[in-house]
Amino acid sequence: MQFQFHTIGFKLSAEQEELIQEKIQNVSKIASRVDDESTIVRVDFEHTRFPEEDKRFNSEVTIFAPGAVIRAECYESTVENAIDTIEDKLRSQLERYKSKQYRRGHKGEWLPTSTLEAIEDEHVTLGNKPQIVKRKRYESTRNPMTEEEAIEQLELLGHDFFLFDNADTGRFSVIYRRYQDGYGIIEPLKDGEKKEN
Predict the structure, then answer these.
(1) Are the C-beta atoms of 163 and 174 separated by less than 8 Å?
(2) Tell me, what's the pLDDT at 144?
């Protein structure tokens, strides 16, 4: 695994970085394909300005694994508490990743059970406008995915919504987690189409 550490407002100690690596490598053994040389792990920590003592550190760990991006995020009072919370979240997400039925690359090919292929890095660009605090860009050459695959990716990322090229409709769609239960999809109308009631 290749670790990349990024901090804002403070610096992780060598002991803290070592603890993070140890915990993530330990939990990554759940899914064997995650724990190989091609996997990139980005670790972000920010010392926040929240007045609450229990939310001083915002932490995010993103694992660029073969065929998926797995992310866990939390706010905690200490770096050590954040590491423990992230470990628990990653454990459940990696269990889900391990049980996935499909394992396709971005070009639609089946991935081998063990791979050293380079995993594309996520390009993050911060916007200059005050209201945009984070901008994520993805390659537009990704193959379309089914709605089921989009739900799976949404759950692996731990997000409430996910933008994808819908293989079922041929449109860019947003799938989102509904507050009541289940998921919803938002899609643009094509020229000449009427909105459904």
Answers:
(1) yes
(2) 87
CB 106, CB 64: distance < 8 Å: no
What angle, rounded to 10 degrees, do the helices at 14-28 and 79-98 form? 20
**Cα–Cα dist 61/90, whole Å:** 9
The whole-angstrom separation of Cα 96 and Cα 79 is 26
User: CB atoms < 10 A from the CB of 156, how many?
Assistant: 21
Are the C-beta atoms of 153 and 162 separated by less than 8 Å? yes
Reduced to 3 states, what is the DSSP secondary structure of residue 7? strand
Give the C-alpha separation, 86 to 61, whole Å: 7
Least confident of 96-100, 137-141, 154-158, 170-174: 137-141
**Burial, 41: exposed, middle or buried (Cβ in 10 Å; 0-12, 13-18, 19+)?**
buried
Between CA 150 and CA 69 the distance in angstroms is 12
Map tokens 């899914």 to a residue. 31
Position 13 scores a pLDDT of 92
Q: By three-state DSSP, how is residue 3 classified?
A: strand
User: What is the C-alpha separation between 159 and 191, in angstroms, rounded?
Assistant: 31
Q: Which domains, and CATH codes, for the chain? A: 2-116 (3.30.160.100)
Contact 137, 125 (CB under 8 A): yes
Would the pTM of this model clear 0.70, i.e. be above it?
A: no
Write the DSSP symbol of residue 145. Answer: B
